[in-house]
Amino acid sequence: xxxxxxxxxxxxxxxxxxxxxxxxxxxxxxxxxxxxxxxxxxxxxxxxxxxxxxxxxxxxxxxxxxxxxxxxxxxxxxxxxxxxxxxxxxxxxxxxxxxxxxxxxxxxxxxxxxxxxxxxxxxxxxxxxxxxxxxxxxxxxxxxxxxxxxxxxxxxxxxxxxxxxxxxxxxxxxxxxxxxxxxxxxxxxxxxxxxxxxxxxxxxxxxxxxxxxxxxxxxxxxxxxxxxxxxxxxxxxxxxxxxxxxxxxxxxxxxxxxxxxxxxxxxxxxxxxxxxxxxxxxxxxxxxxxxxxxxxxxxxxxxxxxxxxxxxxxxxxxxxxxxxxxxxxxxxxxxxxxxxxxxxxxxxxxxxxxxxxxxxxxxxxxxxxxxxxxxxxxxxx
Length: 381
Prior knowledge:
With about 375 residues, the chain is of the alpha/beta class. The chain has 13 helices and 15 strands.
């Protein structure tokens, strides 16, 4: 297993260099000096200290416009690594990355049944995958510094903690991690939003909303690079929006998710599926595949779902007014949703850019990795 993390007492200059290499990638000393406004003697001292600590290493050389070559530095493999764990409704994913974001090892497992909460079987699967990934890495990537578990969380209703961890309390002891490795539980939708902002469809966006549509629904709002959490940590919990809302129907808790989730979509598809078309569809993936092949009934079902989701998009727009809406999740990331959804949004609201996520179903685990790296750097640098 990986080595025990070492605590460092670094000066501000060394912390700045370490964070720059982790965030922006390899660089030469002159480049780092210019970017961080550090003198050449200070930079030489910092690089020597970080190299001696095993945090920075040489990575070849670069020849500039003057013809002179300069040594390129990067984070050393011994600087450490993090784990992102996605406890999803249909799959468990685990990914290990170095502190500069390079993927070291990953594994995933499809669950036999869709899970709305974290169950014993998903806990067992996650623990098994974490053990396998850690065994593959061993001591080759330095110490394990942080672990972030992306999972469904929900607002508390009893006046206690601001967020209830929905079944994840059974996962943390099952991972058998060293006591000095912090484990953070983060909302899965917020993780996906962070990933799309860092490396996906929302790069350079100052204000955008990530809308997950799959087995569960949720929204992550990112403002100036930070996730909007709200006073109770419940920002984006759109599944709690009153639904249905009419004189003839009283809203029920979670009813919107029950209506827009992929389970309900497939139930509607099975009822509408003609007997002449063969066996009813098993899941949303099959429905969208049929629609993509030109099946008229499947296309009608997809378009109706897009219209329903569009109304939720408008609700989010009316509160946040994002410059971009990114659709993700098992259903939301499918491009067949976009044409009808965009049409309805333009009809009932204003024209806002709407696109599919660029990271697909990997968004959540990659977001967990980004959060873990950020926490690790905060403690090191």
